[in-house]
Amino acid sequence: xxxxxxxxxxxxxxxxxxxxxxxxxxxxxxxxxxxxxxxxxxxxxxxxxxxxxxxxxxxxxxxxxxxxxxxxxxxxxxxxxxxxxxxxxxxxxxxxxxxxxxxxxxxxxxxxxxxxxxxxxxxxxxxxxxxxxxxxxxxxxxxxxxxxxxxxxxxxxxxxxxxxxxxxxxxxxxxxxxxxxxxx
Length: 184
Description:
By secondary structure, the chain is an all-alpha fold. The protein is built from seven helices and no strands. It has helices at 45-57, 61-74, 80-97, 101-115, 128-142, 169-172, 178-182. Helix 1 (45-57) packs antiparallel against helix 2 (61-74) and helix 4 (101-115) runs antiparallel to helix 5. The longest helix is centred in the middle third of the chain and has 18 residues, at 80-97. The chain is globular and about 50 Å long. The relative contact order is 0.14.
């Protein structure tokens, strides 16, 4: 491929400019897509949670993962694992909604494990324990076989699995704040 023909961003870095659907899948050029999340946005934790919840409720967990990724990269070191785990949970929902049951379940479980240490403190009003339960329940539902004892499933790159249940990202969207989980 001729490097001069590659899609590039304003700084000249290679960046795929293809439109994307609500689950972040690339669409053919010229097809209307969903507007992408801007990258590198520094938000307060409250703004991060509100924006991610809005995107999750809209059935756009891939975009919510990008919001969490910004917080993970710009936030304090002590919270990095929280935001990284939340990003993994969001992208796990993305994969499950795309039909990749094994990959979705693996990321949901990894994300749940990553945020476990934050459960008692409930940082920024996030209902960590409720999210952990939600993520593990969805992972078990979409991939009941799960990883073998002592494995995290990282070696399984099979993608979509036959017979995986349909997952609607908007319907399955978790509630990030404790108060929202109490009513669910």
